[in-house]
Amino acid sequence: MTTNSIRLDQQLIEKATIIAKALDRTTPKQIEHWAKIGEMMEDNPDLPYEFVKQAIIAKAEREAGKLEPYDFG
C-alpha cells in the first residue's frame, strides 16, 4: 500500500487521537475509518449510518472467515 503525507486540521487530528485510543486504533487508522464511512455514506445517501457500520463489520467478519450460513427454514 502506498502512503502519502497530507495536511489536516489540528483539531481533527486531536479528536481522531482521542477516539483512536478509545477504540484501540492508531490515529491514521481512525482517520482512514472515518474516510471509509464518509465515502460509503456519500455513495449511499439513503442508507442509515448503522446499516453502513454493520456492512463494514460483516465484510470484516467474512474476510476473517467468521460468517455462518443462514438457515431460512
TrEMBL record:
Enumerate the InterPro entries for this protein.
Answer: ParD-like (IPR021831)
A Pfam family this chain is assigned to? ParD_like
Tell me the protein's name. ParD-like family protein
What organism is this sequence from?
Vreelandella neptunia
The opening ranks of the lineage are:
Bacteria, Pseudomonadati, Pseudomonadota, Gammaproteobacteria, Oceanospirillales
